[in-house]
């Protein structure tokens, strides 16, 4: 459920990364060794949902601690995330609001998402039935009909720095 970041905010994203990378324990030896190229570039930045309002609503759940996971269609990923990967979550206006690290990744069929995984997303009424209905509807709006065998990527993340 990730949308590519809006382009005009590149400067704000880079500044946010420079401000927050210490929370990811990246670049600790920068004062001695200089900034390694791998830490100079910000990690991927993205927002939740398909509208600015939904992005803000889901970001609010992340910042409150209610949302600690997300699910996307495998077909939407250029590369499957790995445990330890960093991301910057954007608000509905495209501004950076949180630095997160993936702590658990599962690539499974849609029907294999468990009640605990659905609840970790902090959305709807927290039930697996609600999660399934809401996610099917979300992807249908994007032109994808999801069946029980559709592969999805479930990511649990930890917020390292909220803004």
Give a quick rundown of the structure.
The chain has helices spanning 10-20, 30-33, 37-40, 52-64, 115-120, 128-141; strands at 2-4, 45-48, 69-73, 86-90, 96-109, 151-162. The chain is an alpha+beta fold and 163 residues long. The chain is globular, with a radius of gyration of 16 Å.
Helical content class:
25-40%
Shape: globular
Please list the strands of the largest sheet in the order they lie side by side: 1-2-4-5-6-3
Helix-strand makeup class? alpha+beta
Count of discrete alpha- or pi-helical segments spanning 4 or more residues? 6
Mean pLDDT: 89
Element pattern in H and E: EHHHEHEEEHHE
Measured between the Cα atoms of the first and last residue, the distance is 21 Å
The largest sheet, given as strand count, sense and whether it forms a barrel, is: 6 strands, mixed
| Low-confidence regions | 29-38
Give the topology, please.
Elements: E1 2-4, H1 10-20, H2 30-33, H3 37-40, E2 45-48, H4 52-64, E3 69-73, E4 86-90, E5 96-109, H5 115-120, H6 128-141, E6 151-162
Textual characterization of the structure:
With 163 residues, this protein is of the alpha+beta class. It is 32% helix and 26% strand. The chain has 6 helices and 6 strands; from the N terminus they run E-H-H-H-E-H-E-E-E-H-H-E. The protein has a 6-stranded mixed β-sheet. The model is unreliable at 29-38 (pLDDT under 50).
